[in-house]
Design brief:
4 strands, 3 helices
């Protein structure tokens, strides 16, 4: 099985909205920005406008931090459904990680 990524094979950094104006004012030779999906689960508004502007200039990697696939807890289907919005809106992939460990 091969995995294809749309991300360039170079350095990326985490996006912080506080730096948005500086990013637009002085573009840097970055490969991509990583964004946390949970910060963009709402519909529209300034956060989505910022990501749209970034998407025109850079590749985006969406990092979900709350789904916790691989943990001992059942999959949170409501959270999974909310993840659809930022992933589809940004036309980006999402990578997964376990964030909780339950010890009995």
């Amino acid at each position: 099985m091969s995995i294809v990524s749309n991300l360039p094979a170079c350095t990326g950094v985490g996006f912080k909205p506080v730096h948005f104006r500086d990013i637009l004012a002085a573009p840097q030779p970055l490969g991509f920005f990583e964004v946390h999906a949970e910060n963009y689960m709402g519909a529209g508004g300034p956060p989505h406008a910022q990501l749209g502007a970034l998407r025109e200039r850079y590749a985006l990697s969406v990092h979900g931090v709350g789904l916790s696939i691989g943990s001992m807890e059942p999959l949170n289907r409501d959270h999974l459904m909310r993840l659809k919005l930022p992933v589809r809106t940004l036309r980006a992939g999402e990578f997964l990680g376990a964030s909780r460990l339950v010890v009995a």
